[in-house]
Amino acid sequence: MSGWAMPTGPRPWSWKLNIRSLAPLIGAENPVDLELFQFVDRPESYHDFVNQRYKPQIHGVATFKKQLPPDPERHKAWVLTSSIDGKVDGVMLYDLKGDRPTEFKFNISRFYTLSPASRYAFLGWIGRHIDQANEVSITLPPFEQPHTWYSDLNIKLGSRIITPMGRVLDVEKLNGLPAGDGHFSARLIDPACPWNEGIWSFTGAGGHLRVEKAADADCPMAVQGLSALVYGTLAPESFAYRQWGEIPAEVCKSMTAVFPPATPHLHEYF
């Protein structure tokens, strides 16, 4: 097998929208408490939300184990949080840039919400800047569909240059991942990480994955194929075209049962 480049996940999308269309949301009733602060003053508040609230609910989110202290010159951004019943429910990271006060660009690099209430509270907050900004750019996870959020947003779509990539580094540490019911085994090929090579069985039961060594394999599979299954980005029927393994049709069904298709959001930029 050849072609050792890792499978790519979907890109986060950058959307431009008409700030004037958000005017009706300004001051709308909402059970959300908003709090604004500078990122450099309280970076832990942002990271705590991402790790403790957002990460467990969103497929594919990966974060660094240790965050470096922010640079006051490089990390000039505002953080807006939304809370419902005392629990942080959303976070928006943004800055305003430009040379003319009425023509700033409202640039949102993170827009993470766990409920529609927080989403519309954030959109109302953006609308409050209608006399300061004439352009809004918002980067969103690939599963978000902002053109369905509100009428007349006049959205224009672009994509970030960075394409997220992911791979399995240690097969045994996949134990406990969320999984569907099913079972298959594979002879894994991974010359870059030889500890991964060999025959492994993958069993989904009770909502979780069990990985263990096995005696017999249903098929050979490159680590790229396993990575694509874990992230949910490619069907196993396509692996042969990528030179990741010839997967029998019945085994493809089992693989899809254990690892259903999903849209991951990897969060961190490298």
How would you describe this protein?
The protein is α+β, with helices and mostly antiparallel strands and 270 residues long. It has 2 domains: 13-159, Gcn5-related N-acetyltransferase (GNAT) (Aminopeptidase, 3-Layer(aba) Sandwich), CATH 3.40.630; 171-258, SCP2 sterol-binding domain (Nonspecific Lipid-transfer Protein, Chain A). The chain is built from 4 helices and 11 strands; from the N terminus they run ββαβββαββββββαα. The strands form 2 sheets. The chain has a 7-stranded mixed sheet, sandwiched between helices. The two termini are 28 Å apart.
Q: Indicate the mean pLDDT.
A: 92
C-alpha Rg, in Å? 22 Å
CATH homologous superfamily classification of the largest domain: Gcn5-related N-acetyltransferase (GNAT)
Biggest β-sheet: count, sense, barrel? 7 strands, mixed
Segments where pLDDT lies below 50 for 5+ residues?
none
The CATH class label of the largest domain is Alpha Beta
Q: N-to-C terminal Cα separation, in Å?
A: 28 Å
**Computed structural class:** alpha+beta
Number of domains: 2
